[in-house]
Amino acid sequence: MQRLNASEAGFADAFDALVNGRREADADVSSVVTQTIRDVRARGDVTLAEMTQRFDGFDLNAAGWQIDAAQCKAAYEALAPDLRDALTLAAKRIEAYHKAQLPENRDYRDADNVRLGARWSAVDAAGVYVPGGRAAYPSSVLMNAIPAKVAGVERIVMVTPTPGGETNQAVMAAAYLAGVDEIWRVGGAQAIAALAYGTERIRAVDVITGPGNAWVAEAKRQLYGVVGIDMVAGPSEILVVADAKNDPEWIAADLLSQAEHDPTSQSILFTDDAGFADAVAKAVDAQIASLATGAVARQSWDDFGAIVLVDDLEGAMPLVNRLAGEHLELAVDDDRAERLFDLVRHAGSVFLGRMTPEAIGDYVAGPNHVLPTGRRARFASGLSVLDFMKRTSFIALDKAAINAIGPAAATLADAEGLPAHAASVRKRL
Ligand SMILES: NC(=O)c1ccc[n+]([C@@H]2O[C@H](COP(=O)([O-])OP(=O)(O)OC[C@H]3O[C@@H](n4cnc5c(N)ncnc54)[C@H](O)[C@@H]3O)[C@@H](O)[C@H]2O)c1
Ligand SMILES: N[C@H](CO)Cc1c[nH]c[nH+]1
Ligand SMILES: [Zn+2]
Question: Are 244 and 294 part of one and the same domain?
């Protein structure tokens, strides 16, 4: 973990390095992914089986390529009651939040009696990536598949790695709860390529959503345009802005909640109190020692973690905006959290006040936990129902309407040197 002090000489350069440090697609990841995409296009299922053997350690042809609906239903029914209740609560809250995102069609006539509007429709097929390399993510099943369902997608195809051939009961139960139509036991960049281009077994989809590690995120980025994507959601990140009135143990746990996802996750604390910074650093070290995920969290914290000491928390906000983090906690009194929130320009999701740990958003709050990473909150938003929909505009004119606006169109066509355009309008005037 690096310690930075905003009032020391050299801070600007050190902070620039923190902002510009690449944790995700370095040249290696990028070229490996390009080659993987080529291989999947050329050899389809053969490549998927080979890569699954190499990375997930099992034989797809022997273990089976798919998890079927009956297995998912059985997993749901066999789930421990508290886990089933938790999944159900999460699903209900996620569904309610995302239903409110459904857009409205428009259809109206303007002052020239031109009929204008736009009609929303769902994509035909969506591929949802559910990570599964280091941890199993039933919550990500819900966060992807429920918005797709709410949007009205007819075919929801889930891909997820099953390391060692082990299927995860909670993931299957969540797929049943969310109404996933197909599940393929493949992961990584190869699964994204399979969804984008199709293989002998897997039919291509129109949109791919979901989070994943650096290879998965880079594959989505490279395949955008062949398919639609939600955004690039790679290794998790958290920025915490906290004053000394917090319990350092709570803030340490918040930082570690994202560090434990991936060795390239990033957790950064901004505080205005050097003593509090020391206490959090100490608590992080102590807590890592007792985490089952401690090795991953240690690597993330050591390599990418930071504590930034600032003069005042309001002054930290321009720095926070430059980092444009996936998650931002404002762990201060509620009224101050509102004031700091007003200064936020770039963040995937914001957690207000001392009683709102980021982990609540990961599971049960309702807004989507698939969020832009790698500073992409500057231009991207979290997954929503709209990622599974597209808008078709429409125009209808009658004689009066074309006489009103047609001459201007013909004049513009003349100016562009496109006489067939001009004629197609003038013939109707
Ligand atoms: N941003 C978000 O919204 C969000 C949400 C949840 C999880 N996440 C992130 O998702 C990620 C989950 O990662 P994971 O690894 O546990 O699961 P994963 O499913 O994303 O990746 C596992 C797959 O990665 C591939 N892979 C692993 N090492 C490779 C290598 N050296 N070369 C090529 N391919 C390789 C393999 O195919 C493997 O099956 C974490 O980074 C986590 O932070 C992000
Ligand atoms: N924090 C992750 C998004 O970066 C989402 C998640 C799922 N489960 C636990 N956490
Ligand atoms: Zn998380």
Answer: yes
C-alpha 50 – ligand 3 centre gap (Å): 30
Range of the domain at 414: 397-426
| 166 in catalytic set | no
Which residue among 53, 166, 209, 216 has the greatest number of ligand 1 atoms within 8 angstroms of its CB, and so is best to mutate?
216
- The answer, yes or no, to whether any atom of ligand 1 lies below 6 A from the CB of 168, is no
All residues at 6 or more sequence positions from 302 whose CB lies less than 8 Å from its CB, including other chains: 1
Count other Cβ atoms within 10 Å, centred on residue 411. 12
- Ligand 1 atom with least separation from CA of 51: 37
Examine residue 355 and state whether it is found in any structural domain, yes or no.
yes
362 lines ligand 2 (CB under 6 A): yes
The reply to whether 87 falls in a domain is yes
- For 180-216, write each residue's pLDDT tens digit: 999 999 999 999 999 999 999 999 999 999 999 999 9
Catalytic residue among 98, 327, 346, 369: 327
- 340 shares a domain with 247: yes
Cα separation of 305 and 236, whole Å? 12
What's the pTM?
0.96
Tell me the C-alpha to C-alpha distance, in Å, between residue 344 and each of 53, 244, 311, 352, 400. Answer: 45, 21, 18, 12, 49
CA R_g for the chain: 25
> Any idea what the CATH number is for the domain that residue 311 is in?
3.40.50.1980
At 93-146, the pLDDT tens digits run: 999 999 999 999 999 999 999 999 999 999 999 999 999 988 899 999 999 999
Residue 383 lies in a domain: no
Indicate the number of domains in the chain: 3
The reply to whether 410 falls in a domain is yes
Q: What is the pLDDT of residue 21?
A: 87
Distance CA 4, CA 316 (A): 12
DSSP assignment of 80-112: -HHHHHHHHHHHHHHHHHHHTTPPPPEEEE-TT
Task: Kindly state if the Cβ of 218 falls inside 6 Å of ligand 2.
Answer: no
Mean pLDDT of the 145-162 span: 98
User: Quick check: 90 and 369 in contact, CB under 8 A?
Assistant: no
The residue whose C-alpha atom lies closest to atom 41 belonging to ligand 1 is 235
DSSP letter (8 states) at residue 245: T
Question: What phi and psi values does residue 179 have, to the nearest 5 degrees?
Answer: 80, 40
